[in-house]
């Protein structure tokens, strides 16, 4: 199969590209390297067996001609290109909204033109400020005021979901939407704020671990290879067409306990520093206190759900960052 991955040089996109290449697919990547990196895929370009079926375009998904060409060539499209990380959204609010909204519109327009099946990567951010668990796809959505720019990410991704669903309803385009919950693993960088690589890097340098707020907020982390398996299974399932799916891991943990766990696992002498949100992100920020996925829908359609323990995920990330 010929596969187009937008954002294929990113953290999740590169793991997806690797998996598809291993499966014997022909893989086309388009990435503007805004948060992606050639370091994530260079090793794949060096594999002799992949030489004639791995093609990388460093370009923007807003490039009409290139997107016409690539979407025309490929059988299916995974749309992963997006502004990622709370830090990026707060630092570059306008750019992030344009990338997320116009970029997805462009991808959907192209997929519709050639009637290509498309998977849209959305995010658990879409749920907003819930306290209950688990979050399921039919839950209401709760955001803070528009003065709190963090919610612009959630709102832009929610608009992507609506646009994709509208293409499905009105044009019968085959779309699948996935809400990814805190995906982590090797190749993820802490540069855009993501908590696990940041804490591991701090712990390995014996620097203070920067816990934002009081650390009682919780997250559930998903191992990147599990997330990729879920995406591929959903892409292959007719039953998934026109539907939204949570893709998330199994262990809820508070950020304070996460910091302690990483200190213990790395044998670090780091201390824990509690940093008020306002100091970390400025006044435009509000955190999500809790985020736990319900994955019943994913399981019922694919027979699969992420199952890697947090200890396994952390040991993989620690090993990766140590060797880097
Ligand atoms: N966080 C933290 N210290 C850091 C980076 C993040 O305490 O150095 C917290 C952040 O405030 C959030 C959680 O860790 O409550 C997860 O943050 P991340 O940016 O990885 O993902 P999010 O769930 O916010 O999208």
Features of the shown structure:
single chain, 324 residues, alpha/beta, Rossmann fold, seven-stranded parallel beta sheet, two-stranded parallel ribbon, 12 helices, 13 strands, 42% helix, 17% strand, binds uridine-5'-diphosphate
Give me the secondary-structure topology.
Layout: E1 2-6, H1 11-22, E2 26-31, H2 42-45, E3 54-58, H3 64-73, E4 76-79, H4 86-91, H5 93-114, E5 117-123, H6 150-171, E6 175-180, E7 183-184, H7 195-204, E8 209-212, E9 218-220, E10 222-223, H8 224-235, E11 243-247, E12 252-254, H9 255-266, E13 272-275, H10 277-281, H11 296-302, H12 310-323
Parallel strand pairs: 1-2, 1-4, 2-3, 4-5, 5-6, 6-11, 7-10, 8-13
Antiparallel strand pairs: 9-12
Helix pairs in contact: 1-8, 3-5, 5-6, 7-9, 7-12
């Amino acid at each position: 199969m010929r596969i187009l991955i937008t954002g294929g040089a990113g953290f999740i996109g590169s793991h997806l590209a690797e998996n598809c290449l291993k499966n014997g697919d022909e893989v086309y990547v388009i990435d503007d390297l805004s948060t992606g990196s050639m370091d994530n895929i260079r090793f794949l370009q060096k594999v002799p067996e992949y030489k004639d079926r791995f093609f990388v375009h460093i370009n923007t998904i807003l490039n009409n001609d290139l997107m016409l060409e690539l979407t025309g060539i490929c059988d299916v499209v995974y749309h992963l290109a997006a502004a990622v990380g709370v830090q990026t959204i707060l630092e570059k609010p306008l750019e992030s909204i344009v990338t997320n909204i116009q970029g997805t519109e462009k991808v959907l327009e192209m997929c519709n033109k050639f009637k290509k099946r498309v998977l849209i990567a959305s995010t658990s951010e879409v749920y907003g400020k819930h306290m209950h668990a688990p979050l399921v796809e039919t839950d209401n959505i709760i955001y803070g005021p528009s003065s709190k720019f963090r919610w612009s990410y959630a709102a832009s991704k929610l608009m992507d979901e609506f646009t994709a669903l509208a293409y499905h309803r009105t044009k019968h385009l085959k779309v699948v939407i996935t809400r990814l919950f805190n995906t982590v693993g090797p190749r993820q960088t802490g540069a855009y704020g993501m908590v696990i690589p940041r804490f591991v890097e701090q712990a390995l340098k014996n620097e203070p671990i920067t816990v934002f707020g009081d650390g009682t907020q919780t997250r559930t982390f998903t191992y990147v290879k599990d997330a990729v398996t879920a995406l591929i299974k959903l892409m292959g399932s007719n039953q998934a067409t026109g539907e939204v799916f949570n893709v998330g891991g199994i262990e809820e943990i508070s950020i304070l306990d996460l910091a302690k766990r990483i200190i213990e696992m790395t044998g670090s002498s780091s201390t824990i520093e509690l940093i008020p949100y306002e100091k970390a992100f400025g006044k435009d920020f509000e955190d999500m206190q809790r985020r736990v996925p319900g994955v019943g829908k994913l399981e019922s359609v694919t027979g699969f759900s992420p199952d890697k323990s947090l200890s396994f995920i952390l040991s993989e990330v620690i090993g990766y960052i140590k060797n880097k």
